[in-house]
TrEMBL record:
Record's keyword annotation contains Translocase: no
Record CDD domains: AAA
Coiled-coil stretches noted in the UniProt entry, renumbered to this chain: none
Protein name per UniProt: Stage V sporulation protein K
Origin species: Sesamum alatum
Keywords: ATP-binding, Nucleotide-binding
InterPro entries: CbxX/CfxQ, CbxX/CfxQ_RuBisCO_ESX, P-loop_NTPase
GO molecular function, one term: ATP hydrolysis activity
Length: 272
C-alpha cells in the first residue's frame, strides 16, 4: 500500500552480526541479497585493513532506484542499507525517513531518504529541487522506489534527477511459496505486536499447503499488486475464524477461509 505520511524509522544501534541475520532472513530477492552480502564483505575487509594499521577511507553514499510492486520488500531493504552505510561510515546515521508525494520532507540528513513514487500523487518541482540539493550536499543516500511504470513516467520528466542515481535494484513479485513462508514467520511472532498473539498455526499448515491455498484463493492480479501486504489481513481473518470456533489453534481450513476473506476485503477496497 502507499505510504500516507512521512515517517522516520529509529532502531537500536546496529551491529554487523545483527544486519547479517536480517539479510539471511529475507524471503526471496536472491539477487538483492547477493548485493547486500557483497557490501557486508567489503565492510569486513575494511575492518581487517583498519585493524592491520591501514588507513581506510569511508565510501561515499550513493543514490538508488528500487523498482517493484507494493509489498516486495523495498522498505525492508532500505532499512538494511541504511544500517550498512552507517556501519561502513558512509553515513553518520542509520535512520530511514520514508516519504511520498508532496508530504513535507523531514530532516533526513545523515541517513537514508526513501521516496515512494506514486502515479496518482507526483512529487512537485520544488521538492525535486530540495532533493537534488540534498544529493549535492552529501551525507545522505536517497532511494526512489515504485513500480516500473510510475518511475519511468516520473524520471523521463526529471532527467537531471535521474542521472544522479548510480544503482537500480529490481524487486520481483513474491511467489505463493514465498508468501507462505512470510505468513508463517508472521504467525510465529507471539509478542504483543503479533497478529495472532495467543493463537498458533496447526502443524497441518505446511508451507506447501499454505502456498497452494494462496495460489488458488488469492487472484494473481491481486498478489502482484500487493504481495506481502496481503498477509496481515489474511492472518487476522483466520484468527477470527478460530475465535468463533472457540479454538486457539488455526487449522488449515481456518487459514483457507482467512486467505479468501482477506483477499476479498482488498478486492472490494481496490474495486477489483
Amino acid at each position: 500500500m502507499s505510504v500516507l505520511m512521512c515517517d522516520t524509522f529509529y532502531e537500536d544501534v546496529p551491529t554487523l552480526d545483527e544486519v547479517k541475520r536480517e539479510i539471511s532472513s529475507i524471503v526471496g530477492l536472491r539477487e538483492i541479497k547477493r548485493h547486500l552480502e557483497a557490501i557486508v564483505a567489503k565492510i569486513i575487509d575494511a575492518e581487517k585493513d583498519a585493524s592491520g594499521g591501514l588507513k581506510v577511507l569511508p565510501p561515499k553514499p550513493f543514490h538508488m532506484v528500487f523498482v517493484g510492486n507494493n509489498g516486495t520488500g523495498k522498505s525492508t531493504v532500505a532499512r538494511i542499507l541504511g544500517k550498512l552505510f552507517y556501519l561502513s561510515r558512509a553515513l553518520s546515521s542509520y535512520t530511514v525517513t520514508e516519504m511520498q508525494g508532496n508530504k513535507k520532507m523531514k530532516d533526513a540528513k545523515g541517513g537514508v531518504l526513501l521516496v515512494n513514487i506514486d502515479e496518482e500523487d507526483p512529487i512537485n518541482s520544488k521538492l525535486v529541487e530540495e532533493i537534488i540539493a540534498a544529493m549535492n550536499e552529501g551525507d545522505i543516500s536517497i532511494i526512489f522506489a515504485g513500480t516500473y511504470k510510475a518511475l519511468n513516467q516520473y524520471m523521463k520528466f526529471n532527467n537531471d534527477l535521474y542521472k544522479r542515481f548510480s544503482a537500480r535494484l529490481q524487486f520481483d513479485d513474491l511467489t505463493p511459496q514465498e508468501l507462505a513462508t512470510i505468513l508463517q514467520k508472521k504467525a510465529s511472532n507471539q509478542g504483543e505486536d503479533g497478529l495472532i498473539c495467543g493463537f498458533e498455526l496447526d502443524p497441518s499448515c505446511s508451507t506447501i499447503d499454505i502456498a497452494d491455498k494462496i495460489a488458488v484463493l488469492a487472484p494473481e492480479s491481486l498478489r502482484r499488486l500487493l504481495n506481502a501486504h496481503l498477509l496481515d489481513q489474511m492472518l487476522i481473518e483466520a484468527r477470527k475464524v478460530a475465535e468463533r470456533s472457540g479454538e486457539k489453534t488455526i487449522f488449515l481450513r481456518d487459514l483457507a477461509i482467512g486467505i479468501h476473506s482477506g483477499a476479498q476485503i482488498y478486492k472490494n477496497l481496490l474495486n477489483l
